[in-house]
Design a protein that fits this description.
alpha/beta; Rossmann fold; five-stranded mixed beta barrel; 10 strands; binds ligand LNDFFVEH; hydrolase activity, acting on glycosyl bonds; Nucleoside_phosphorylase_sf; FL_hydrolase_MqnB; hydrolase; Futalosine hydrolase
């Protein structure tokens, strides 16, 4: 049976997920460190790409040239936009990923569409990656069943993290996004190139737009994201 690939950006996100696995073995695949293990009878690879779109696209692509998962489960933390309905530590499932740094410069936060596609196997607006609808539905049902109160909605990926409430509010108002992060669109893009379904789950570590340390709780977000991953694996989520 094909494995599930769990993709994180930073070690802090991976550690509590690793503790869900048994029969683990650290190995190198194409020179990249990967943990292989099992959860609820399901073969799993756990891979940490490093933060940001470049690390994610480059390293995930190398990995996918060597392993062929049935599903990529991207998990980690993110900043919640105002009015998203999320709370600190809350779980969010992406219905689409929007790369805010690709397109034609425009007066608004959302770039105008480019006149060409970035993907040869998708009719997407450049920078907009729709999620796999039935996967999102299944994930939401599983997480609700576990009383984890998930919220689904668009996620935004950017390389330049919001540092003001004004910027976060403008992004929310223009895109309707619920979560800001630094990797999602890159993983969706790479998954599309390899024709592999992807599901993205994040837990809220901070309100988007604040750099005040007291507004951040990475540790709780890492634990809650892992809890969500554990629920999805135990319920045998399938693409
Ligand atoms: O921002 C910091 O000061 C900081 C310091 C040490 C570690 C970290 C992280 O591990 C977070 C990076 C990780 O988190 C995602 N993330 C979380 N909140 C946001 C946000 O408001 N805007 C964009 N990305 C966010 C991101 O995907 C990174 O992978 C942070």
């Amino acid at each position: 049976m094909k494995p599930i690939l769990i993709l994180t950006a930073v070690d802090g996100e991976a550690r509590p997920i690793q503790s869900l696995l048994y029969g683990t073995k650290s190995m190198q695949v194409a020179g990249l460190p990967v943990i292989r293990g099992y959860c609820a009878g399901q073969r799993v690879y756990l891979f940490t790409s490093g933060p940001g779109t470049f690390n994610t696209a480059a390293r995930l692509s190398v990995l996918l040239s060597r392993i062929h998962p049935k599903l990529i489960l991207q998990a980690g933390c993110g900043g919640m936009y105002p009015g998203s309905g999320l709370v600190m530590g809350g779980l969010a499932v992406a219905t689409m990923e929007l790369d805010l740094h690709t397109g034609l410069e425009s007066p608004s936060v959302l770039p105008s569409p480019l006149p060409f596609s970035l993907l040869d196997n998708g009719p997407h607006r450049p920078g907009l990656y729709p999620a796999h609808e039935s996967l999102v539905r299944s994930a939401m049902a599983i997480l609700r069943n576990e009383n984890l109160n998930p919220v689904s909605g668009p996620f935004v990926t950017l390389s330049c993290v919001s540092t003001s409430g004004e910027r976060a509010t403008a992004i929310r108002e223009e895109t309707g996004a619920i979560i800001e992060n630094m990797e999602g669109a890159a993983a969706f893009h790479t998954a599309a190139l390899y024709h592999i379904p992807i599901l993205e789950l994040r837990s809220v570590s901070n309100p988007a737009g604040t750099r005040r340390k007291e507004d951040w709780d990475l540790k709780t977000a890492f634990l809650r994201a892992a809890e969500g991953v554990g629920s999805l694996l135990k319920a045998a989520i399938q693409p």
